[in-house]
Design brief:
alpha+beta, about 130 residues, Aspartate Aminotransferase, domain 1
Length: about 130
């Protein structure tokens, strides 16, 4: 049994970015943009990077689907596209999720350790499928 858990927000965000850009199958059109390599975690959350999907049309080649923010002990992913699909998939994956009452609405998903990175990938897949 592994006693060590990765609960460092910076490391969790790095793992998530690596998984997103490394998935050449169901998330092949997803990329990370606006990354700030010098960002420091804060208790309120500091924007680390955005996640975009390549839509491949002439009007706009990329569309934002999420923003990833750093906390000292976790990552907060705010899904700006398909918030209902994100909430449902996150609940199914057993992740902590809550709506964000802004206009347009967002869904916030918390990734609290390195092991949860794999569990948030189906949330990104659901958002990509439902935001076309």
């Amino acid at each position: 049994m592994v006693a060590d858990r990765t609960t460092d927000g910076v490391r969790i965000a790095q793992l998530l970015a690596s998984e997103l850009v490394g998935d050449h199958d169901s998330l092949a059109e997803v990329g990370v943009s606006d990354a700030d390599p010098d960002v420091e975690p804060t208790t309120q959350g500091a924007l680390a990077y955005r996640v975009r999907v390549d839509v491949g049309d002439a009007s706009s080649s990329e569309r934002p689907i999420a923003e990833v923010s750093l906390h000292p002990d976790r990552v907060r992913v705010e899904f700006v596209a398909a918030p209902d699909a994100a909430a449902s998939a996150a609940e199914d994956a057993g992740l902590r999720v809550r709506p964000k009452a802004v206009s347009p609405p967002r869904t916030v998903v918390f990734v609290e350790d390195g092991a949860q990175v794999k569990r948030v990938l189906p949330v990104f897949r659901a958002v990509v499928r439902n935001s076309a």
